[in-house]
Amino acid sequence: MPNACYDGKKSNGYTGYWLMNTKNNKKFQETDALMCDMFLKLLDEYAFEDISISLLCQKTGITRATFYSHFGDMDHFFDAVAKRLFLALVEEDRTLIRNMDLTDELYRATFLALFEHILSYRSFYQVYVTKVAQLPFLSAVSAFGHSDGMKRYAAIQGITSKRQAEYCAAFYYTGLTAMIRMWLDGGCQESPDEMYELMSIQAMNMAR
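Above: the chain's sequence. Below: its structure in token form.
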């Protein structure tokens, strides 16, 4: 339950109060960020299964009660970290869109940003890919209209309906997820540029 602050007026208990631990409260958001950032650092030192709520609280200096006022359990917390990273990636994509005009350059820059993002947080994504069938943020790339390979493939195959396009997108992004999973499993030996070239080759093969 959120903590309440009593306003000093006494009439049938609390006649006025305001919630301190709300998601719109600056301190609440700063604590969220502190826990998420520490978790990402701990993943570089510990195996995921060895990172407990107790360890996280110890490293951040927060209490377990504070943790539970923010997150229901470790699974909820893990999802919150994933969402935070996803939003950071989307914001980076939006910045690219504002600053670039040429479609080909934007297409390349967007996927390079994706691979660089995954590389930067590879300890997290090495765990994350074991929990999901498809990386959910890949659909955001489609939403921004950069899936040229998928569009060419759809045009050549005569795909015109929305339903057919959804199947095409599922095929395209499931394949890309498999590539990213393989990259992570191999310790990210290839650079983001090399991953982009490998992805482009597959996209061209699809479009033939």
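The chain has ten helices and two strands.
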